[in-house]
Design brief:
CoA-bd; alpha/beta; nucleotide binding; nucleotide-binding; succinate-CoA ligase (GDP-forming) activity; Rossmann fold; 2 domains; EC 6.2.1.5; seven-stranded mixed β-sheet; about 290 residues
Length: about 290
Amino acid sequence: MAILVNSESKVLIQGITGKQGTFHLKQMQAFGTQVVAGVAPGKGGGVHEGVPLYESVFEACENHQIDASVLFIPAAFCKDAALEAIEAGIKVIVIITEHIPVVDELIIVNRAKLKGATIIGPNTFGMASWKCKLGILPNVAFSPGPVGIVARSGTLTYEIVGSLTNVGIGQTSVVGLGGDRVPGSTFVDMLKLFEADPETKAVVLVGEIGGNAEEEAAEYIKTMSKPVVAYLAGKSAPPGKRMGHAGAIIERGKGTYEGKIQALEAAGARIAIFPYEVAQIIQELLA
């Protein structure tokens, strides 16, 4: 099994004909994703890389079952595109776009909560379950297996997924929460789904400095029946300096590496100091 999407999920791409949309459409198709429709205003009725095009999300939903949408939309237009997907009733919406204004992110996230939709992102690498990839994750790293992964950092996730695959340990689902100030989903949201998934036997949490998402996760980890391994980025980051992500900044002494590690250890999570240690610890836990 997997969380949120699986090999049977039908996927829509908004912004499918752009450079990034086209490239990642091909990668998603190669992964096995069922991309059944694309939205490209002004090109409705056409076909792009074998995928039928529509003028709007509503039109696409009238002609296809749509389980999830991926947005490759410029930041200035992303709010309207995301709201259109939410109002059309799509329940999983992955927003790859970065640099979306914070006020737009707040509007998107609040509307999604009212409509019961799950937002992955913004500013995310997306997510993948076996044979269904939504976003920009590298195909080569993944394999099916018993480990769920939820992360704030993309490249570290790829490294950790690759190290797990190299030792023969696959993944149920891998989810990127995104690096912005207003994420659509939290660690706790995904941990709850992994806890309920019978095929996920262990969970990896990839966090970073800034905010209190990891501390909130630690409180939930205390209640979990499944083991959790955590790796945190930003150990050497100076206070007050943003390290790549808008949310990765220590402010007024809060969101420090040390504080997060203490909270996670107290909750019973195993801590990996280096990314390669995650696979070693998972091997021990699943032995």
